[in-house]
């Protein structure tokens, strides 16, 4: 297949690119809104902290470690029944977003927990000594202190999700990965394969550049 054939496939290529953005957008949102509180929970329930609870921490830690230990391609297949139960289908970018979200939430939660551990313990101890409630400490100290790292963590998560979304194409998840499999691999078309690789590389570079710039800008405010 030559350049004229690529031009013919341009509408499909655009659609695949938008499907990749959709998958990454849904799963990244799930990672932020569910992974952020999970990561904070892992931190604040640790020994000697404001909501110490060994049972909660150990239970959440086991679940997080269990999901993170499963290779993503296996997780995709394992979650097919759950995805079908939840959405009534296992095909398409929204269906693929279920497995992507399940993988992204514990991934980002560990980043959040690590960011929280970099906070000076003395700041939290001083807040406890003044009688601040756990919620107040989380809202006014922990979250502001680790905001730049949270943005960097989101960038790392987004880049990882792009590579995961390409794997989702192997089971009909759509996106650029699906296009690469159907035209580049099955039809032995190196031009399409290289085109999809370039698209993914450019997307990763754009996200990395934007995330780094935004994190630096936020860090100057704190």
From TrEMBL:
GO terms for cellular component: plasma membrane. The chain crosses the membrane at residues 20-44, 65-85, 91-109, 149-171, 191-211. It comes from the Bacteria. The keyword Cell membrane applies. GO terms for biological process: D-methionine transmembrane transport. It is found in: Cell membrane. Belongs to the binding-protein-dependent transport system permease family. CysTW subfamily. This is ABC transporter permease. It comes from Paenalkalicoccus suaedae. The lineage of its organism: Bacteria, Bacillati, Bacillota, Bacilli, Bacillales.
């Amino acid at each position: 297949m030559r350049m004229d054939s690529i031009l013919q496939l341009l509408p499909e290529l655009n659609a695949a690119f938008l499907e990749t953005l959709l998958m990454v957008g849904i799963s990244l949102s799930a990672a932020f809104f569910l992974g952020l509180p999970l990561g904070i929970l892992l931190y604040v329930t640790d020994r000697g902290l404001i909501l110490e609870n060994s049972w909660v921490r150990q239970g959440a830690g086991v679940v997080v470690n269990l999901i993170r230990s499963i290779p993503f391609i296996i997780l995709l297949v394992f979650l097919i029944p759950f995805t079908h139960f939840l959405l009534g289908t296992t095909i398409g970018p929204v269906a693929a977003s279920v497995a992507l979200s399940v993988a992204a939430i514990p991934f980002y939660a560990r980043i959040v927990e690590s960011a929280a551990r970099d906070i000076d313990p003395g700041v939290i101890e001083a807040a406890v000594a003044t009688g601040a409630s756990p919620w107040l400490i989380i809202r006014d100290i922990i979250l502001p202190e680790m905001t730049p790292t949270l943005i960097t963590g989101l960038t790392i998560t987004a880049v990882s999700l792009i590579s995961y979304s390409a794997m989702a194409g192997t089971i009909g998840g759509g996106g650029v990965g699906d296009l690469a499999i159907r035209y580049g691999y099955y039809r032995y078309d190196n031009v399409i394969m290289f085109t999809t690789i370039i698209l993914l590389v450019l997307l990763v570079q754009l996200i990395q550049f934007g995330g780094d710039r935004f994190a630096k800008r936020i860090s100057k405010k704190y």
